[in-house]
Amino acid sequence: MIFTCQPGFTDLLAGELSTHGFSPVEQGAGWVRTEGGPKTELPDLCFPQMALFDPVEIAADSVNALAAKITEQFLASAKTERFEGEWPFLFEEAAEMDGLGRRVKGVEKMVQENLKKRMSRVARLAVADKPRGVAQLRGLYVFFVDFKRAYVSREAFFGGQRRMADDEQAPSRSYLKIEEAYIVLGREPGFEETVADLGAAPGGWSYSASKRGAKIVAVDNGPLKGGAYNNYKIEHRMEDAFTFRPAPDQVFDWMFCDLVEEPHHVMENLIQPWLERGWCRRFVIILKFGRVDPLALLRDVRSPDSVFSRCATNIRVRHLYHDREEFTIVGELK
């Protein structure tokens, strides 16, 4: 398989894959090729953004030759298939290689033209975009590792990560993370649902929920800014996130938490009481791993004894497109 990730985190991707039985045999900026691994469905993985199944290596010197080989590979594998609706047609390239993107665009355009000549109806149904959300889909996926070599796959898994559009009223870039996290969970706050945003300042996550009509309690001693400031949907509590407690018998529909704190301290002293006592129904939590071993922290989160395993379901742990040295955990209480 080939797994892709955010550039700069390739070693962590390779390390995570190794813990799940995959054997990394080659890697570059933002990608790892593996052998072995589970024979059934993929485990829930944090760092991969896309995983290509059974990739076939294609090598050639020119754009024309690469496009011809990719076209023939697709036609040979698709000759017995029925295409009844839109299907993914995705070309991507390894990061940090100047000029490779232009070459890939040239190959992609030529493959499109080839398919229009050979399978015009099928070509019209091709969609050059990733699916929105977590999905495993059949299509045409081409990943270039350099100017002369690409891998072609017909089946891919997507972890839900994707680049999000900014909002000029959002008080911080963290707004992008919560917008992306909704896609990974497959749900977002609804109208009149309640949200406890712990460590809210400057208010990017609270602002995101307010746009959907939710009612937010933003807990932070710091000020709210931008679209979160004086927002009638947001009640700002000047309190410590670690000591804030819901009112008796109050259960929030959502709990948000993005704190610049040691992750085990956050899990033990904030997340654990919220989940064990059922103070929320769903959660989006970020844990910072800049000063701890990220893979050891992942093991702790996924441990059968962790508060997440004991109290929650539908858990997904992801290194988001907009995450830095952190990962995001989404889920629901059992």
From TrEMBL:
Q: Where is the Ribosomal RNA methyltransferase FtsJ domain?
A: 172-260
Q: Pfam families annotated for this entry?
A: FtsJ
Q: Quick check: keyword Phosphoprotein in the entry?
A: no
| A GO BP entry | methylation
Q: Which GO terms describe its molecular function?
A: methyltransferase activity
Under InterPro entries, the record lists:
RNA_MeTrfase_FtsJ_dom, SAM-dependent_MTases_sf
Q: This protein's superkingdom? A: Bacteria
Question: What is this protein identified as?
Answer: rRNA methyltransferase
Which keywords belong to this entry?
A: Methyltransferase, Transferase
